[in-house]
């Protein structure tokens, strides 16, 4: 793909769109093509990455997958440590971290929440625990201001969220996570960061939620789009849940 055309990383649930196909292992690429054309099911993809799978998507950048249904994580290696885009869910965070550590063992310097949904943010607690255990600084977490409002609402409506999530995913007795790791830095419209000479622009957007951040890595022409693009488009939100 020509460098002049932006590439999109659906950091969630699915996988990259039109992305660095030349870097994919042949088996991986073949499965991507079959899913894209509808010949393979998304469950096949989940089985393929079971246990957590990380692979390069560009120089010093990785995508980490644990399945199609919930948020994936992307990572950039910099001179100051790793930048992560999301942190995985309560259920996938350990697999995600293990897969990351098979590729890179440097400290996580920055985590960007693409939005406040629990399958994107909850794993940040695990990153804090890792930093404490290894004597590293805690990762700094950056998010849009509205993420704080969402976390507040999650706390105030914990019972409702447990019920709705249990119904949506057919898990009677499901208990919604609590004690969400709050961001250290919040912003309103755009926010530029430079981590070890990797320059990223964070921008606020509204789609599935009103707390979304998409991140443009201009030097590589890569967009980290969170849940703006999943296997359906547009992603206008989830059933029976407060969207905004
Ligand atoms: Zn979401």
How does this model look, in words?
- This protein is α/β, with parallel strands linked by helices and 244 residues long.
- It has one domain (7-228): Metallo-beta-lactamase domain (Metallo-beta-lactamase, Chain A, 4-Layer Sandwich).
- Helices cover 27% and strands 25% of the residues.
- The protein has seven helices and twelve strands.
- The strands form two sheets. Strands 2-3-4-5-6-7-8 form a seven-stranded mixed beta sheet.
- The longest helix is centred in the N-terminal third of the chain and has 12 residues, at 26-37.
- It is globular, with a radius of gyration of 17 Å.
- The chain starts with 6 loop residues before the first strand and ends in a 20-residue tail after the last strand.
- The model is unreliable at 1-7 and 9-23 (pLDDT under 50).
- It binds zinc ion.
- Zinc ion (ZN) binds next to loops.
**So, CATH architecture?**
4-Layer Sandwich
How many strand elements?
A: 12
Structural class: alpha/beta
Q: Fraction of residues in helices?
A: 25-40%
CATH class: Alpha Beta
How large is the share of residues in beta strands?
25-35%
Question: pLDDT below 50 for ≥5 consecutive residues: which ranges?
Answer: 1-7, 9-23
Going by CATH, what is the homologous superfamily? Metallo-beta-lactamase domain
Q: Number of helical runs?
A: 7
Question: In sequence order, what are the helices and strands, one letter per element?
Answer: EHHEEEEHEHHEHHEEEEE
Shape estimate: globular
Rg result: 17 Å
Bound molecules: zinc ion
Biggest sheet: strand arrangement: 2-3-4-5-6-7-8
Count of structural domains = 1
Distance between the termini: 36 Å
* Mean pLDDT value: 86
Q: What about the largest sheet?
A: 7 strands, mixed
The name CATH uses for the topology is Metallo-beta-lactamase, Chain A
